[in-house]
Amino acid sequence: MRKLEFDFATAGVDVLLVQTLPNIRYLTGFTGSNAGCLVTSDGETTLFTDPRYTTQASQEFAGGDTRIITKHRMMSLAAVEHLGKRRSVRIGYDPAATTVAELRRIEAKLPARSSLVEIEGAVEKQRQVKDESELALIRESVRTNSAAFDAVVRKIKPGMRESDVAAELEFQQRKKGASSPAFDTIVASGPRTALPHAHPTEARLDPNILVLIDMGASRGGYASDMTRMLHLGRPSAKVRGWYDAVLEAQLAALDSIRAGVTAGSVDRAAREVLKAKGFAELFTHSTGHGLGLEIHEMPGIRSKDKTRLRAGMAITVEPGIYIPGEGGIRIEDTVVVTQNGCEILTPTTKEFVSI
Ligand code: ZN
Ligand code: ZN
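# zinc ion complex -> structure
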């Protein structure tokens, strides 16, 4: 069980309604797929789930206050009704985690003199900085992911389908201890590497072609994320030039990371390198993102993000350039911010591998 570090008094609420499963897992350890929870200002957490999870909740949230409610009831509504016994209560809820239908039903059942207050991202903010047990799981996830990549990369050859490569990668992730991929594996070849989020197709790999692989494992609930480029046959000078530019941008971004700098400054470090090489317009996404229980978490490593990085934040660094109709390059590592820099967790080589 984790204590939520949240200033209830300043926010003007007595209790927080927590609805997303990653937030519930973070606070209670409960991994079931149907739950809601309430956190009070004195640090007490009550978990609401349905009868399918009675045993699981008692094991994972051992010693915690669990209420089992009827399966087909709305968890948030059950939680609010549970509060109905109190005289008046100010309930914080996250609009990003509450559907309009849910909100309407909660409002209809709201005890007299109680009120609803919008509170965004209370748990997500705390989740940005990982504790030691979380970092250990992220390290394991990264190792598992890279081991799966290593096992498959030497078997890739012309004639294989993109989808075959993706299937092999996901098989190896599970063989090596992942519970699942952290997201749908991206394998793109040739001109399709210019699509930043391409899904693998039935296309067969040509003998002389650029291949982009973006993959992550989920282990103990925690994600890893890595992108590597391969080239079947020898890359042309032009493609090699793209690769070198993106690698230089990625190294510059990594070099700029330390506790105290803004997320935006890391993005700019990558962007300036690519701008100097005339590739500014081809870098069409942000430089990275936080990751942990979810593949995309705060902070976003983007130009306007003013979040100050803190030691223990786990983030990705993944600049890329995309030339429509020709191809694209992205290089991505998972790193942890430290006081004086960052620790690059991803062990896989960033040499441009020709196979
Ligand atoms: Zn990725
Ligand atoms: Zn990523």
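# post-check
Residues 214, 225, 227, 332 surround zinc ion (ligand 1) (CB under 6 Å).
The longest helix spans residues 132-153.
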